[in-house]
Every structure is written in C-alpha cells, then in structure tokens.
Specification:
- The protein is α/β, with parallel strands linked by helices.
- It has one domain (8-319): TIM Barrel (Alpha-Beta Barrel).
- The chain has 11 helices and 10 strands.
- It has helices at residues 30-41, 73-86, 115-135, 149-153, 169-186, 207-219, 243-256, 270-279, 289-293, 297-304, 316-319, and strands at residues 8-10, 13-15, 19-22, 47-54, 91-96, 139-144, 190-196, 224-228, 261-264, 284-287.
- An 8-stranded parallel beta barrel has the order 3-4-5-6-7-8-9-10, surrounded by 5 helices.
- Strand 4 (47-54), helix 2 and strand 5 (91-96) form a beta-alpha-beta unit.
- It is globular, with a radius of gyration of 19 Å.
- The structure holds iron/sulfur cluster.
- Iron/sulfur cluster (SF4) is lined by residues 289, 292-293, 311-317, 325-327.
Length: 328
C-alpha cells in the first residue's frame, strides 16, 4: 500500500513523503519567505520546488519574485536551501522566463531568434544552474509547460522555424536537449522538467507528442518530470479541468519512461490522494494552493491520518498573482 507519507526515492534524491510542494508567485519580502519555507519544510513535505525564478532582469513574474541576476540572489538562494536541508527536504528551483531580449530589443519572437540568441539563452540558463548549485540547491526545474518561453518554443503552434530548431518534435526540442546534455555532463545536479500533458490549442501539442517529448528528455538525462496543463483553460477550446485526463496521461507516461513523474492539480484531501496513489502507478503528487492557505497543514494530516485542506480552491491567489491567501 502506498501512502503520501512514505519515505521514498525520487531519482537521486531521498524524500520523506510523496507530497511535492510546488511554488508559483512570490509577493512577500524575503523575511516572510524564509519563515514560510521553515513552516513548509518542517511540515512533512517530501520535496520543495520554489516559486518562479526569473532569468532576465526585465522578466518579473510577481512582486518580490526572485531574480537570478540580482546581487543578493546567491545569498537568498543559499538561505532557502539551508532551511530545506535543515529538515532533510531536497529543494529544486523553478527557473523560467517569459520574454527574451537582446538588450534594447524586447520580446523577440521565437521565430526571429538567431543562432546567437539560442546559444545565449542556453548559456544564460546554465549560468543560473551554476549559481543555484553554488547556493546548495539540489537541482532545477525547467519550465516546458504552462505558457512560458520554452514551452512555446517546443510547441508547433508557435514554432514555425525552418532551421534545425523547428519542424519535427526533435528539432523543436533541440534547444532544450542540448541545454540538458551540457548541464548533465558538467554539473552534479538534479534536472527536472515541467511538461504540459497536452495543449488546448488547435495545432498545439497533443498527448502523444507530449509523451514523445518526455522520452527525448529521459534520453538526455532529465531526472524527473512534472505533468501540468496549459496555463489558463479560458484560452482554450478543450476542457482542461478534468483530473481523469491528467491521471490517464500520467499512467501512459509512466509506462513509457523510467524517471519519477509528479502529477499536480487540485489535490486537497488525504484519502483521495492515497486512493489515487494506490489505484494507479503514480508515486508523487504536487500541491500548491493548500500551502498558500496554510503553510504547515501536512503536520495535522500526518497526525490525524485523514486531512482536508482548508483551501477553498477559489483560485483568487492564482489569478491575482499573490503568494498569500484571500481567506486566511
Ligand atoms: S485564495 Fe483561494 S485558492 Fe488561494 S489559497 Fe486561498 S482559498 Fe485557496
């Protein structure tokens, strides 16, 4: 029988539970963030994935989001890693960007990137990974899902390039595959990727292509994959709110790749999560909003064995890009 509080192996990392706390927006100053991480880390969580960390100076996700180019970045990242490790919790940094610029040019389209731009993006991400390694992080998570820059680059809906970085799935993935290969051969670092199970847009990635993408990632040494869905269901014709579809996708993916798969999306009840773990081959479940509603809720779940998050899943914190709860 699997249980969310099992000790388990997550690739090269040991976890104290199957619950992955994933972050998103950061709107609190660092003093409050350290306190929050302390509460989360000691609550019984298995793995912490940080809020979005930006690569480029102008690319700001939310007020107080960590910027990898800031002079305090390594000091702040070091403190976060220490807090997690003091509680034997591994920590990955969620590294993303929305827009790429060449200094004065802002928001360059994927199809207009030169070879020099592609190499620049790859080396910028490698530099961030090196900084995080120096700060004591266990790894990074690259965003190939939701609606961030690289997720668009690998998506045929956006990528109409006619060079080696466009066309078939392998070519669209080339920017990421080259990048991961370099990081895996030069850094002793866990590399995770967040991938959309499918894309709701006509002409976007479907579930079959997404599995193909994950197989390519496994081939170049990616250590874990988090399955997500497109950023906002409002933009798409397809209904993306159905949990069963994501569960089915994860089941299929687990049959195709041999790296840990994390499924996220709306979990709020301990019994439901345990039932899902035992009815499927899924081993890791991620949660975001319950940690916004109450940072240490897992403590009482562990004690009672039957917990439900007080999060109302109203999505106000998500929609308004705040890292605090509207209700509590
Ligand atoms: S604002 Fe709503 S979704 Fe966000 S944590 Fe609070 S109750 Fe949950």
């Amino acid at each position: 029988m699997k249980d969310i509080f099992d000790n388990c192996q997550f690739g090269d990392l040991k976890l104290k539970s199957r619950v992955v706390r994933t972050g998103l927006w950061q709107t609190q100053p660092m003093g409050e963030v350290y306190e929050k991480y302390e509460n989360i880390a000691e609550s019984g969580v298995g793995l912490i994935i940080t809020e979005l960390i930006s690569i480029y100076p102008k690319d700001k996700f939310s007020e107080y989001s960590l910027k990898s180019n800031s002079p305090q970045f390594i000091i702040e990242a070091k403190k976060l890693a220490e807090i997690a490790h003091n509680h034997d919790v591994p920590i990955l940094a969620q590294v993303e960007f929305i827009k790429y610029n060449r200094g004065i040019d802002w928001d360059i389209d994927i199809n207009d990137l030169t070879m020099a731009d592609i190499r620049q993006i790859q080396s910028d991400i490698i530099v961030v990974a090196q900084k995080l390694k120096l700060a004591g992080f266990d790894g990074i998570q690259l965003a190939l899902g939701n609606n961030f820059f690289l997720s668009k680059f690998i998506n045929p809906y956006f990528n109409q390039r006619s060079d080696d970085y466009g066309g078939n799935t392998f070519n669209r993935m080339r920017i990421v595959l080259e990048l991961v290969r370099v990081m895996k051969s030069n850094l002793d670092f866990h590399i995770g990727c967040k991938v959309n199970a499918f894309d709701g847009r006509k002409g976007g990635i479907d579930a079959g292509q997404s599995i193909e993408i994950c197989k390519l990632l496994e081939k170049v040494g990616v250590d874990s994959i988090q399955v997500t869905k497109p950023l906002s269901p409002l933009y798409f014709t397809k209904d993306v709110s159905n949990e069963d579809e994501l569960v089915e996708f994860c089941q299929n993916l687990i049959g195709e790749v041999d790296v840990p798969i994390i499924l996220g999306g709306g979990f709020a009840n301990q019994n439901h999560m345990n039932e899902l773990l035992n009815a499927t081959d899924i081993e890791f479940l991620s949660m975001y909003r319950p940690f916004v509603a109450q940072e240490d809720f897992l403590k009482s779940w562990k004690e009672s064995g039957d917990g439900t998050s007080r999060c109302k899943m109203c999505n106000n914190c998500y929609r308004t890009k705040t890292s605090t709860c509207y209700h509590y």
